[in-house]
């Protein structure tokens, strides 16, 4: 029992370290993303001149603290670190929150819930949904939500003629002089 707890603690420490270094990389790359670069400019100006808060819609929900941008959701009073929308950084973060052993490939909703506790980026829900839906492991192990296909088997051979018939329509034919545009095909399954 102690071994398992110790092992989980080691995994959590490794994940925390990986995420900490990842966040340092993310903050250093704010200028590469248009949105976070605009936020940096808007928040810097907003700190100097309160009239410039309309640079970005809902700018009052963002704050700049020691070079890091934080977002405050209206439904929550906990600030979240804003990340630049750079694929390699977001994929590395989502790997930690979805693929890592301590999370074990949760679905879209659970992954979103875990990530949004601490982080925010534009179109976060869409990014997470695409990441989880493209996860190879999840595709292989997820349960089917459809009925299994029926088994193929041939029909029994009829005993006499014209007891078992197969019918089909051929439609969207050119119209005849009499005004017909379909053909009814009837086949006796014994004599064909």
- Say what the CATH topology of the largest domain is: Endonuclease III, domain 1
> How would you write the strand order of the largest sheet?
1-2-3-4
**What is the gyration radius calculated from CA atoms?**
30 Å
Mean pLDDT across every amino acid position: 80
Stretches where pLDDT is under 50 for at least 5 consecutive residues are 1-17, 51-55
Shape: elongated
Name of the CATH first level of the largest domain: Mainly Alpha
**Number of distinct helices:** 6
Protein structure class: alpha+beta
Series of H and E elements: HHEEEHHEHHEE
Q: What does this protein structure show overall?
A:
By secondary structure, this protein is of the alpha+beta class. The chain has 2 domains: 9-141, Endonuclease III, domain 1; 160-192, no CATH class. Helix content is 42%, strand content 13%. The chain is built from 6 helices and 6 strands. It has helices at 2-28, 34-48, 87-99, 108-116, 124-133, 136-141, and strands spanning 62-65, 68-71, 80-82, 119-120, 165-170, 183-188. Helix 4 packs across helix 5. The radius of gyration is 30 Å and the shape is elongated. Mean pLDDT is 80; it is low at 1-17 and 51-55. Residues 89-143 form the Integrase zinc-binding domain. It holds the Pfam family Integrase_H2C2. InterPro entries: Gypsy_RT_Integrase-like, Integrase_H2C2.
List keywords for this structure.
elongated; 2 domains; 192 residues; 6 helices; 13% strand; 42% helix; Integrase_H2C2; alpha+beta; Endonuclease III, domain 1; Gypsy_RT_Integrase-like; disordered N terminus; two-stranded antiparallel ribbon; 6 strands; four-stranded mixed β-sheet
